[in-house]
Amino acid sequence: MEIITNSRFNRAMKYLRALIIIFFSILLLCLAGILGLFIYAKILGPPPLAVPQSTLYFSNDGHLIGESNSGEKRYWVDIEDISPHIIHATVAIEDRKFYDHFGLDLKRIAGAVVADVKAMAKVQGASTITQQYARNLFLSHEKSWNRKLSEAFYAIRIEMNYTKEQILEGYLNTIYYGHGAYGVQAASQFYFGKDAKNLTLAEASMLAGIPKGPSLYSPVVSTEKAKQRQAIILQEMEELGKIHHEQLVAAKNEKLKIIGEYSQQQLSVAPYFQDVVKNLLKTKLNIDDRTIDLGGLRVYTTLNTKQQKIAEKAVQETISPDSEIQLGFVAMNPKNHYVTALVGGRDYEESPYNRAVQAIRQPGSTMKPILYYAALEKGFTPATTMRSEPTTFTFNKGKDQYQPHNFNNKYANDEVTMAQALAVSDNIYAVKTHLFLNEQTLVDTAKKFGITTDLKKVPSLALGTSGAKVIEMVNAYSLFANGGKASEPVFIKRVENYDGEVIYENKSTEEQQLKPDLTFVMSHMMTGMFDPKLSGYASVTGATISNQLTRPYAGKSGSTKADHWMIGFTPQLVSGIWTGYDNGSEITLTADKKYAKKIWAKFMEESLATKPIKKFKPPKGVKAVSINPTNGKLATPQCPVSRITYFSKGTEPTEYCTDHLDQPKKKQKPKKKKEEENEKNWLQRLLGR
Question: Which CATH superfamily is domain 338-607 in?
């Protein structure tokens, strides 16, 4: 009997030793597995924290003008810019041991496992803040053991490579607060209309309760449930020693003003302009669509919000609501070619088609200054004369004919100067100049001005019958305003990624494309459209708006049957506008024909109202003389009209006007002695004595 008992005892001990060995083997394997897991996590290094964020767009002065619109609001703020109240409230309700664990709370996990086993399903969570952050970044929100294990592994990796402050910052910037708001900054703006750094204890404790169930605890959905959740959070904060009881009571009783909406003003600023910027991000900077929408980019643009508002206001106040006329408008700083305002149509919501940068329309006589600059390079001067009369041009060895007409069929039937022909927009003079230079000359010169749209090499090109874009024409006129320096239009100054690193900075340089002396001569000639001294057989084309202008401007209007343009500038600002019907039909209503000039005048006057009046400064190489604008000869005291006109040195006229020798001397203001001596000797100089 004793032998049997010993045998059983020995077998029991044998089994016990085996169990102990198995237990410790399993334990060692588990420890080795855990150690291996940590080593593997360390080898993998930090997981990329590529958090989806809204791309933000800023104006030239740094104001937010828009953001990517995907139905979600995602902003990133540094932890220093988050109220300590929301930090303490979040830790208190979501993860009290956040600062003590390594990413996993084993006690909470054990409790959750027991609950799940009892229910035979995944019913209880035990996620730490780190695990929730990992889930927000890398995983779905399905309740499964596989997802839970992946979540734990990512949490370990995050804890091993980032500080608690970095983890908390990331969590607060990615957690969902309902109503499309991701992150504490977006939530603060939506619920309370303020930045996260300015949240009070009452606001923070209410906000911290929302992520558990935005559809339940949002104060927009249920004020009662939001308050109940807030009370629990305040209690937790008191137990952790983050607030005193008096603070708890005050926060519970504080009456909160819930905004419950995002600022729509930011999203309505220059939508056509923003479309251009987004297109450039994709086509010029080669940034993919997802990064543009949710890459957290900060795009700093050239938009001047004041000028943009002025432009939109001028359009709204000028064009009749009953009119079907459309428009494209661009304003630009000629010094750096920054686009400062842009309107692509009357209503973006109704039609996002951008007529300022997409529409190709006939520019009409706004092409003439480019033609006449080419003529200056070929030896013409503002005093060069040609005959203005009904003319039929033949070309292609007499096979084809072209018969342009002046507006209202008004002709001088005499010689006219280039200066006057430009001011009254004489078409005959323009076509004669164009054909004299050779049709290719204008095509090549337009390219020097930055016009990239293909132009047809035809006689009527002088009158702007080949289409161009508003942005091209305004950019071309910038060369007149800045002394001939060419550059592409600039919309984006700088782009930063979500981490604040500059990934693009505009470094476009201006190229001296035109001759400064001839550019100035041309610019001064373009002031003539507002000068009644140049009216004669026809009125100057700016006569209808000259009484609205309070400073010197240069410019040119243009029109075809279906298009009306006005482009003008000062040394500080260039702007241009096209008006017409989208279907290209003829503009017959008188009111519709006048909108372009009126809008341009309103915009320029209001935009420059607070700026000093600047005249066009003559460069070296030009000379000013007083001429008779009708015949281009040096004016005499007997000439009824004289105008100061600039010439490239050596090209100014030397012959005096003799057309009015029998005319009585016109009354003039008292002159200085030197001027009187010059007048006495003018006839002797004329006769060569």
Answer: DD-peptidase/beta-lactamase superfamily (3.40.710.10)
